[in-house]
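Progress against Task 2.4 (sequence-to-structure conversion) is shown through the following example record, which the project officer requested during the mid-term review.
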Amino acid sequence: MGKLVDLIGDNPMLALIAFCEIGFWVLLGAGLLARYVFKLRRTSNVLLVGTPVLDVVLLVAAVIDLRGGGEAGLAHGLGATYLGFSVAFGHSLIRWADVRFAHWFAGGPAPVKPPKYGPERVKREWREWGKCVIACSMGVGVLVLLSFVIGTPERTEVLWQQWIPRLGVITAIWFAVGPLWSTVDRREAPEKEYS
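C-alpha cells generated for the chain above:
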C-alpha cells in the first residue's frame, strides 16, 4: 500500500486520475441522492452533468503537463484509457445506478438482471463490446492528440509502443470472452428466466 501511495504522490497525473474516478462516483451518488432522497431534481441534474466535466479536467491537465515539458508515461496512457472508458460507459453506468436508486428510494421497479444465455445475451454482449471499441478508439484518439501536442517522437514513444497496442489487446480479449463466446454458446435460457 505504501508503494502505491508513493507512486501517486510522485506523479500528480496519477493522483488526478484517482481524483476523477472518485469524483465521478461522488457526483453520481450525490446526484442520485439529491433526486430520490431530497427530491431536488434540478440540483440532481447539475451534479450528474458535472460527471463529464471531470473528463475535460483530466484531458486539459494531461495537455498542460505534456506542454510544460513532461514526458509521456504510465499516467498519460492510463489517463487516455480512463477517459475513453469514462465517455463510452459513463452514461450506461449512470443509468444502471439510477434504476437502482429509483428502486431503493422511490418505489421504482426492481432492476432487470441481464440474461445469462440466448439471443438477448448475445445482443447485450455485442452492444457492450461496441462500447469497448468506442472507448479504446477514443483512448487511441487521445493518445494521438497528446503525441501531436508534444510534437517530439522521443517523448511519446511509450504511447505508441505500449498503450496503443494495449488498447488493441483489450478490444481483442473483450471480443473473445464477450460477443464471440456468447454467439457460439448454444445454451438457451431456462424457461423461468423469461417469465
